[in-house]
Amino acid sequence: MRNEQAFHQAQIKPHFLYNALSSVIGFCYTDGEKAAELLSVLSQYIRHILETDRDKPLVPLHRELEVIEAYVKIEQARFGERFDFICEIEEEAQQCEVPSLSVQPFVENAIRHGLFEKEGLGAVSLTARIERSQAVIVIKDDGVGIPSDVLRRIAAGERSEDRDGGIGIANIRKRLDAMPGAALRIRSEPGEGTEVSIHLPYER
Amino acid sequence: MYRAIIVEDERPVLELMKVLIGRNGNYEIVGAFGSPLQALEKLTELDPDIAFIDVEMPKMSGLELAHRIVERSKRTAIVFSTAYKQYALSAFDVQALDYILKPVTPAAIERVTNRLAALLRPEPASGGDNDGPNIRLLGGFEILSARGELLHFPTRKTEELLAYLLCHPEKDISKWLLTELLWPEKTQERAMASLHTAIYQLKKLLKEQALPIDIQRTREGYFLSLGQMEYDFLLYCSRESEIASGTMTSEQAEALRMLYRGPLLEGRSYIWKIWLEEALKKQYADLVRRLTDENVAERNWQSAERRLHAFLSIYPLDEEMNAGLIELLSLRGQKENMVRHYEQFKRRYGDEFGCEPSEEFMTRVRPCLGG
User: Fold this and answer.
1) A residues 39-98 near B, CB within 8 Å?
2) Residue from B155, B237, B200, B58 nearest A118 by CA
């Protein structure tokens, strides 16, 4: 029971909330409509996180996308035109089952670590397609990339220290490992970008 | 007014900082930057008293910017803003004045202002002797130790507790009342524990700073004994009846008037101070009225004007005193000044309250303007 609570709490990132709320409060003075819109999106985001059903570890991709979209909207409100988010999901792939909150953290990393440190405009793309009997989800960014020693540690499945206490990549890898036919691959080139691809078994 | 710059890369948060710092009223925002580099470019030109810096900016982090600022301009105070509590607690290896947590609140800016004021204050020029302990409740809340050092309180509650006791000295104050006042949200048990801790901290502080006042424990609560200590609030209270009946001498009245540097506990948002503040304001107004009436009777225009201006610098929208000033200017034949002051007052009144000044005011000033 306590483990579950910890899991829950770990998913709500206080840092993200405080920053999102700061933005909203700022907009209250300059653009009330925007502030209202953001609060709406923020509550959707929180609802998703809080209502993740413990008994259903898998969710359809379109649900995962809702959380991702809410998250991206908030980050874009904060950072304005600093990054583009391109999302292309094949119709069929929308129904594919994925472990809940296994894709969102990668989008978050792409924005926070990849693009945040970069000068100038950046782009994150999220694509999902069906290839034979697999669903392939790819998160790509043209940010600063992951240093090779960190990459090695991630590949080795070591618990990476996410200072915000969120779901580490190691946790996602573990859940994917528990799914037969699932795979996670991370490629990165410092200064050029990072590409994360998740392969999942898919039955039509 | 302190010259402030803000460095924050998120646009809505930058706007928020501008609004909150602007509304505090103690700052002139001389620069608001979306990037550390922009801020550094203008730094020497602007020479700010204080820099509000977001710690979590990409590329040149806020900390690095702070280092560069301190290198170039030692006197600029640094305040970091951060969403991370951990950041705040860990040692900033820059001598930061303060840190504020995001989302930033008006209360946080107020706290920063108090610290900045304490930092930048020149040798305190108190009414009496410069060395030795001094307590001021009017126009702020300042206590100077026996060595002339400004007192720093460990927490806001201990500060509020002492302020309350100083406003109710030489009286047995119920500990239940104090817990209700200061920790209304806590359970009785927790609140009582907090009270005991706060009292302990205060007693320690008073002793360390060699202040001649003492907090004593009574059966039902606590008692602040003052000994020989005098301070502005105390003097106003003890002379209350004399002020009302007008039995004090002009010299005494003037001395008392000069003690009024501003509203009671200005800058502190204590709910309990409100009626005390009102009462003191009324006493001050009575003093000013009496003294200016005397001045006018003696045809000492300059004195009267000076006293009215002093009052208006604290309470600019007080109708009675504004009317008094207008009458005075009219008496002196200074038509232009009078009209200008009237127009200015009307405008500011309208901006603040969204309506015209009262009928009483108009009745007084109409004869002056009509002529």
Assistant:
1) 77-80
2) B58
At B282-312, the pLDDT tens digits run 999 999 999 999 998 888 888 888 889 889 8
Contact A26 B84 (CB under 8 A): no
What DSSP string runs through B58-95? SSS-HHHHHHHHHHH-TT-EEEEEES-HHHHHSPPSS-
CA–CA dist A40, A38 (Å, integer): 5
Q: Provide the residue range defining the domain that includes A150.
A: 2-201
Q: How far apart are CA B49 and CA B78, in angstroms?
A: 9
Q: Cα(B128)–Cα(B264) distance, rounded to whole angstroms?
A: 19
- Min Cα distance B72 → chain A (Å) is 26
Domains of chain B: which residue ranges?
2-120, 134-225
How near does any CA of chain A get to the CA of B51, in Å? 19
Instruction: For residue range A121-178, list pLDDT tens digits in order.
Output: 889 999 999 998 899 999 999 988 888 877 777 777 665 555 444 457 877 888 888 8
CATH superfamily of B2-120: Response regulator (3.40.50.2300)
Select from B10, B86, B103 the Cβ nearest to the Cβ of A21.
B103
